[in-house]
Write a structure and sequence with these properties.
This protein is an alpha+beta fold. It is built from four helices and two strands. The chain has a domain of 60 residues: Arc Repressor Mutant, subunit A (Orthogonal Bundle), CATH 1.10.10.10.
Length: 100
Amino acid sequence: MSETPQTAKPAKGKNAIAVLRERHGGMSKELKEYFKEQQRIRKLLREGLKGGAMTVPQLAAACKLETHTTMWHLMAMRRYGEVVEGAEQNGYLLYTLKEG
């Protein structure tokens, strides 16, 4: 049996995201700041929930955030599997970090 010749590896190209960013001049300063703020808030919420289950008002107070901001981020974190809803306390659901 004869061996097949080694095929040359294709040259590494830019991924689609890099090409798109290059075409549009990169990410604006405002957009970078927006994403940085989103990450900061999510980090605050994760740190707050490390101490145990909390309701939205409790977590908002602990993180010094507005309740609607806290709720919005918690719902996003729940959707992507970072937090789970638990029992109810005084008419509010308790949220905890998902173990994993």
